[in-house]
Design brief:
Low-confidence stretches: none
Structural class: alpha+beta
Shape: globular
Largest sheet: 9 strands, mixed
Radius of gyration: 15 Å
Order of helices and strands: EHHEEEEHEHHEEE
CATH superfamily: Gcn5-related N-acetyltransferase (GNAT)
CATH architecture: 3-Layer(aba) Sandwich
Oligomer: single chain
CATH topology: Aminopeptidase
Number of domains: 1
Number of helices: 5
């Protein structure tokens, strides 16, 4: 399994993975909107000998604190083809995403999801507490990639998330 950046020709396969993994079109439509608006900091696929079997999107977010705006990232969505789930592919996509975001200068990543899974990927519930966000709550977590990361502020997601309801 090779983790690589998403390419234009991967879009149909990524959509199928998202539909299969989530059982609906909400996440697939979200990714289409993020792509259309150039709101992805990073998108990775798990290439299984020419077949895409996993996907991780890292949308561009911002944190506003004391009048400064910081570019940060989110993680949403992550999906693996059902037949390939529970083999570590999702974790590999996430770890490679963190590594690449760090090299791009991102200092902080937010995620909304199952704490039992995402804390194993390095995310921390307490780290997200000082941040004001529409998604704040028991499933909102953050991961600091370097010491320059803001410690609090208002987190803003791209407009593509507004249609999630």
């Amino acid at each position: 399994m090779n983790i690589r950046p998403e390419q234009v020709g991967d879009a149909a396969a990524v959509r199928q993975i998202l539909l299969a993994a989530f059982g609906g079109n909400v996440e697939a439509d979200l990714v289409d909107r993020l792509r259309a608006n150039s709101d992805l900091a990073l998108a990775l696929v798990a290439d299984n000998g020419g077949r895409v079997d996993g996907y991780a999107a890292f949308p561009k977010l911002t944190v506003e604190d004391a009048g400064s705006i910081h570019s940060v990232a989110g993680l949403a969505p992550v999906a693996v083809t059902p037949d390939w789930q529970r083999l570590g592919i999702g974790g590999a996509l996430i770890r490679e995403g963190h590594r690449l975001l760090f090299t791009q200068g991102y200092s902080l990543v937010f995620v909304l999801g199952d704490p039992n899974y995402y804390t194993r990927q390095g995310y921390d519930l307490d780290l997200a507490l000082p941040f004001d966000c529409v998604y704040a709550g028991p499933y909102f977590m953050a991961l600091r990639l370097n010491d320059s990361a803001p410690k609090s502020g208002k987190v803003r997601y791209p407009a593509a998330f507004d249609q999630l309801g």
